[in-house]
Amino acid sequence: MKRILVVDDNPDILDALDLLLSLHDYQVSTANTIKDAVLTANNLRIDLIIQDMNFSQGTTSGDEGKSLFYKLKDIAPSTPVIVITAWSQLETAIELVKAGATDYLPKPWNDTKLLELIAANINTNVVGSTKTIIAKQGQSSTFIVESQPMKQLIAMAGKVASSDISVFITGANGSGKERVADYIHQHSTRSANPFIKVNMGALASELMEAELFGAEKGAYTGATTTRIGRFEAANGGTLFLDEIGNLSLAGQMKLLRVLQTGQFERVGSSNTISVDVRVISATNSDLTQAIADNLFREDLYYRLNVVELHLPPLALRQDDIIPLARHFVSGSHQLSDITAQLLKQQPWPGNVRELENHCQRAMVLCNDQLLLPEHFMLVEPTNSKQSALPDVLSSTSLKVEDDKTNLKAVLDKHQWVITRAASELGLSRQALYRRIEKYQLSQPPLPSQNEH
C-alpha cells in the first residue's frame, strides 16, 4: 500500500484528506508542523507528499511552505510533492513547481483532480521475481504463476479483459482476487483510465450508498461537502467491488440500475448522472445461498456473474508456493532446501496473504541470509504420512477440480453436505454442483433404519 504524507496546520483539512485518501486505498501519515513533517519523512518510506504553504497562525507569505519543500527535497529528492495553496500564495506555488514540485492545487481543491494527480505521480514500480511473471509492460499487474490451475485462470482473465463484460471472481480470503481484477483492468482498453477499488466489507452499511454513488452536501449528518462517489471517480475505467455480498438490498437495487443504464443519483439529489464504468466484483461467500435467504438479488447476481473466475486455494496450486515465497523474501535472503520442502507441505488456510506474512516474519527472525524452518516456525513431519496437508491433497498429482475420484471422496467424507464439501475444495456451491453434474455423481442411498 502506498503511503502519502499530508502536511497542513488545519486539523479539518488533515481529517478530510486522511478520509479521502484512505477510502482510495492509500496509507496516510499526517503532520501539522514543519518539524513533524521532517521527522516523518526521515523515518518512514513516503511515496508522495501533499503540503500546505503556511503553518503558523496569521502567516500568508508562503515562506514556511517554501522552507519545508526544500527540506523534504533534501531528504527524499525523488518523492513527488503536490502543493495545496490559497490564491494569495499562487506565485510562490508556481515557483516551487519550477523548482521540482509535481504540481499545485488551489484551496478548496477538487477531489477528483487531486486523486488523478496522485495516481499519475505516485510510485508504482513493479518488483521482479525469480520465476515466471505475467505482466503488462510499465504497469503494476504482476502474477507469479507456475501451477496449471493458475495458468488456465490467467489465460481466461486475458480473454475477458478485452471486452466490457462483468466479471465475478470467487475464492477464499487472501487468494488474490484483487490481483486478478487489477490484471483484467491493466490488460483492457480502459487501462489508461482509473481503477477504483471498494472493499464493501470495510464500509458501514449506512455509508455504502454514499461511497458508491456520492452524496450532496447536507444529505446526512456529517455531510458538510458534496462527496464524489466511486462510480464517478471510476468513469471511463474499472470499478472493483470486493465482498459484494455485504451490499444492502437498497444498494443492490441502485447498483442493478447502474449496470443496466449507466445512470444514478447522488444521495440527497434528484439530478441523474451518467457514467461509463466496467464493474468487476468478488466474494468469498456463497451468494446462491444469500439469494435463497432473500439477502441478495438474483437479477443482480446474474448481471454481475457474466463470467466467473474461481481462484483455487494456495494448497491446491502447490507449484506456486515456492516461486511466491522467493518473490516475497527480499534482498539476498534465500530459502534452505528443507524450508522449501516444508513450505509446500503446509495447508495455508490464509492462502497467499498468509504465505507473504510468514515470509516477512521469517526475514525479521533470521540473523543471516539463509531462511530456515524455525524462522517460519515450521515443524518437519516425522514421516510423509504426517503431512500437514489434508488427506485429499497429500499428492500434488491429485487435482480436485479435474479428478472425479477425489471429488467423490470429499463429498462422501462430508456425507454430501454440499456447503462443507465446497468449503474444503475451495469452490462455491454452484461450482461444486456443476462438477457433480459433469461427472454424473450421485449420493449413495442412506442406510436403512433397521441396519445396525
UniProtKB/TrEMBL annotation:
Record flagged with keyword Disulfide bond: no
Q: Does the record's keyword annotation contain Metal-binding? A: no
Provide this UniProt record's keywords sorted from A to Z.
ATP-binding, DNA-binding, Nucleotide-binding, Phosphoprotein, Transcription, Transcription regulation
Location of the Sigma-54 factor interaction domain? 143-364
| GO annotation (BP), single | phosphorelay signal transduction system
**Record SUPFAM superfamilies:** CheY-like, Homeodomain-like, P-loop containing nucleoside triphosphate hydrolases
Which one of the record's GO molecular function terms can you name?
A: sequence-specific DNA binding
| Pfam families the UniProt entry points to | AAA_lid_14 (PF25601), HTH_8 (PF02954), Response_reg (PF00072), Sigma54_activat (PF00158)
Q: Which residues carry this modification: 4-aspartylphosphate?
A: 52
Q: What is this protein called?
A: Acetoacetate metabolism regulatory protein AtoC
Write down the species.
Answer: Paraglaciecola arctica BSs20135
